[in-house]
Amino acid sequence: MTSDKQLTHISKFLSLVLRHQPKTIGIQLDQNGWTDVKELIEKANENGISFDRDTLNYIVATNPKKRFAFNETLDKIRASQGHSIEIELGYESQKPPEILYHGTSEKSVQSIIDKGLEKRSRQHVHLSSDIETAIKVGRRHGKPVVVKVLAEIMYTDNFQFFISANGVWLTDHVPARYLKSNDE
Fold it and tell me: Most buried among 19, 41, 59, 146, by the most CB within 10 A?
């Protein structure tokens, strides 16, 4: 059995090649972010990241953030969201809950207050429907701060929202006027 440390290493590798740099191992993603599973495993193994189909199945099934998904026929795989390369995930616009949350670090708060939430190098701004997830996200970047997003008002003002296969809410930009501190 593959160790937890190896599984984490493979998962991080998958995030890199399926979200940001497929050319690192010579794979291509189609316009919707899918790549062939057999080719992915083959190219990964050629590049020193050794795993088999059972290990890949285990990572997709047990990843707590559901970062990866197989297509219906299980012969293609993609990252659920978080891409820095241009792909079309095929999500349809949906009405969000009244409030969504964004976890960040203390050092980013002033920029967010000034400019709102920007997608920067990603395709979307990532939001969560619960405070606990936002805190976990913020903690990855330093001392966590949670910002409330007035999502329903944004939606009424014709902003589009999407929800990824793993439950992350996505939008293009959140102007500062739609943000509130978590204390408000």
Answer: 19
